[in-house]
Amino acid sequence: xAGKWREHFGNDHPIYVEIGMGKGRFLMDNARTYPEINYIxxxxxxxxxxxxxxxxxEEPLGNVSLIRMEAEYIAEVFATGEVDRIYLNFSDPWxxxxxxxxxLPSREFLARYEQILKPGSMVEFKTDNRELFDFAVEExxxxxxxxxVRTYDLHADEALMQGNIMTEYEERFSSIxxxxxxxxxxxxxxxxx
Length: 193
Ligand code: SAH
Description:
Bound molecules: S-adenosyl-L-homocysteine
Mean pLDDT: 97
Number of domains: 1
Number of strands: 7
Strand content: 15-25%
């Protein structure tokens, strides 16, 4: 599909991708709210993705596509600059040091996102896991991404909460009192080909 997504959707609308979409609530709520954006959800487990497919069956939205895949290969599925935004929500923490490369906000993954994102476009990351968030901030800074937004308590920030669409995990963890961390980072422009 690399380079063919606009043809697939039949329009030139921006393409936003959520990696690790889980059951797809965030993706579906976004797609309903913003029909002029195309949403692609990526999930590695078919048992989880199935819940997203069921949602889409009940509410067919023409601006949603789902892919079952391991995100490591994301640069094979999208052409250079084909993607306008990436969302990471409550990504697996992989707490062991030797698994740092598997974390979705790691520098290894940021390099893949940089390939498929248009210059100047954003990655938005939410999590209640402070260790993972601290790691993510360091990785983004080390890789030269700008960070116009960084909060350690999203739900206490009125401005950032404007239009915030909750994920399944966000609902669950904020309801038991966990603060939600969020950053927005901008793809570096100085490494363009
Ligand atoms: N984003 C949802 C789910 C969070 S749980 C929410 O916020 O509610 C993290 C999800 O990401 C799980 O469903 C897991 O299977 C998926 N995931 C984790 N690592 C992945 C990877 N490397 N590639 C694809 N999906 C992944």
